[in-house]
Amino acid sequence: MKQNGFKNDSFLELQKFCTELISKQPEKIFNSSDFTSIPEKALISLIQHNGNQISEVQVWEHVLKWGIAQNPEISSDPSSYSNDDFNALKNTLRQIIPLIKFTEFTSKEFLNKVYPYKKIIPDELNEDLVKSFLDNDYKPNKKSEPQIIKKEVKPNNIDSKIITRQHAELISKWIDRLGIADELKNSYEFKLILRGSRDGFTPEKFHEICDNKSHTITIIKVKD
Questions:
Q1: pLDDT (tens digit, 9 = 90+) per residue, 197-212?
Q2: In sequence order, which residues have a C-beta less than 8 Å from that of residue 118 and are 6 or more positions away?
Q3: What is the rounded CA–CA span in Å between residue 154 and residue 168?
């Protein structure tokens, strides 16, 4: 119910009910068997309405669990990660990491639970956190405060001969189920994985390159 409610903005009353439910008992959602299948939007709402009912380190552990589940090829042991693994997890959790209240961790929790994943933490935030845990008098800057990072879609992020920046912004709104006139709240990075003029138009080539790739959009230009 939670997942479906947040997938469709038309279920406003259902979303309101779900939000009230998780604000009272967020641990039930975090500990549910299908927690890793909830959409990103629902996870963000869950974190924002936690109200300190479970510790921040527990929130972080569940966020990692969710992020790893979105990338089945990644193991749960960060010591075995390649740079590609770290980058994949970093991209998956890009909108969520800024919501974590890392400054509420103990030094031991930060060392054991966060530092092994330092490559997925934005550099400036990571440096600021390390300083704050090494020096009790250090005052973290605003980058250590929970916030949502919005990644602007820029023309040089769109490697396409078919769509433009404006198209990318429109597709981003469709993904978030926003209207055309609504303000764009979350932007997405569009990474080209197949181009017909470069890779060919055969079904075999399409499946060879695109199979088992999550969060993809297929765009085809049709002749008039």
A1: 888 889 899 889 888 8
A2: 126
A3: 9
